[in-house]
């Protein structure tokens, strides 16, 4: 094909990117989606390569576990060749499962080889047309949960990757091969991250571009623990837009670039500062960077680890202030759970024909109105009741005071956290109530929460400072109960004072609510706190 030939003076990265365009124009969006293929834009691949190769090496071993047309490899090779001090040997292993991409990947690597040979540099590459995880699962030592063991297997001093992205069945061969890292239904991208990083040599460097979702949430808890125990993150770049990076494939996903260095078990590692940046478009023309302390980014609470991404001095100040709040839900004797009613599973028990003797209210996200829960509300024909019978007893909750939280929100919305109050007094004609699965609820198993307490907790969660804090460590549009469990909280006495004043003020304007929360928390410098739109 004429399109496959490299144009005179065309850079290696530009050539490989053009090959990816040729491939995308000849394949369907649905096919690429099924394969988890989202090709890296040119500027981003070049940025990742610069991030990866920051100091000259005589011997380079590079792994790309999902190479595509080789744009990340080509970008890396371009950076190496432009360095004044050239290597002596370069060895590259490129995994690619899709046979349709192999000829294009080979074209890229052949062009890389030609250029290195012109500089009298020994260059070898190997294309492996196999499943990366199944081919390398021998790196995983099942006898030691969450530990990888090399056993003299080949390692690399550099890894660069834009791994595939799609959900795996938890019983798939890939998921079973790395079962010690999995909770729930896994996404293949973090299995690529785990297995490839286990193939790094000590002090080796890796750079990934991935969804941000692994930085928080229960599904990724085991992986985060393992990854942070074995690697030091020293750089993170987050993209402000969710739809700009992989716009060709209409991906609505918050993406980050992560750089990390493999820990050497023979060396005591210090908690080094981490460079954190935010970028506003795929051209990378406007990156704002701060240097954060290790504990500002790597947050540990209740046996879990989170990767937070503060992107400004104000956000750093916010983190440090909120981190000083001394309690969590568990410390206050509170629990958070997810509504038991999964609508499609309980469909036969749901109805719009309300009868007080046979039904109870079903509360969904659309029943939230500011602080209150309003029922009934018709919304797109969704049922408003659930039958109260023997088969639904396990789905119903006793009517009492609860704080309810929406489980889902859009990143572009003004707030990520939306809390409302369900008061026993407003549903006292019922003994039970149904909460749909898109709603989280906070409750006390011992002493029932008072109206002042539930309003105080809801006001705290609805405040812009906590919403902003939550966005810094939550990497998805889902509000996970596990993340709320680890939120720092003030004492119950302070929450009660907030709730009492909220009730007395008639749940008035947003500005007044914000003032009440800030005053009770004694956070004087209000300029630090604002609604974060990222």
Chart the SSEs and their pairings.
Elements: H1 12-26, H2 29-35, H3 42-52, E1 59-64, H4 71-82, E2 89-95, H5 102-118, E3 122-128, H6 132-136, E4 156-161, H7 173-177, H8 188-198, E5 200-211, H9 221-230, E6 231-239, E7 255-262, E8 274-279, E9 287-292, H10 294-297, E10 298-301, E11 304-307, H11 313-322, E12 334-338, E13 350-351, E14 359-363, E15 368-369, E16 372-373, E17 385-387, E18 396-398, E19 402-406, E20 419-422, E21 432-435, E22 439-444, H12 451-462, H13 464-473, H14 481-485, H15 492-504, H16 510-521
Parallel strand pairs: 1-2, 1-4, 2-3, 4-5, 6-8, 14-21
Antiparallel strand pairs: 5-7, 6-7, 8-9, 10-11, 12-22, 13-17, 14-17, 15-16, 18-21, 19-20, 19-22
Helix pairs in contact: 1-4, 1-5, 3-4, 4-5, 8-9, 11-13, 12-15, 15-16
Domain count, please report it: 2
For this entry, what is the oligomeric state of its chains?
Answer: single chain
Number of strands: 22
Q: Count of helical segments?
A: 16
Q: In terms of structural class, how would the helical and strand content be classed? A: alpha/beta
Tell me what the CATH architecture of the largest domain is.
Answer: 3-Layer(aba) Sandwich
Query: Which strand order do you get reading across the main beta sheet?
Result: 3-2-1-4-5-7-6-8-9
Provide the gyration radius in Å: 26 Å
Percent strand equals 15-25%
The residue fraction in helices comes out at 25-40%
Provide the residue-averaged pLDDT.
90
Q: Which sheet architecture does the biggest sheet show?
A: 9 strands, mixed
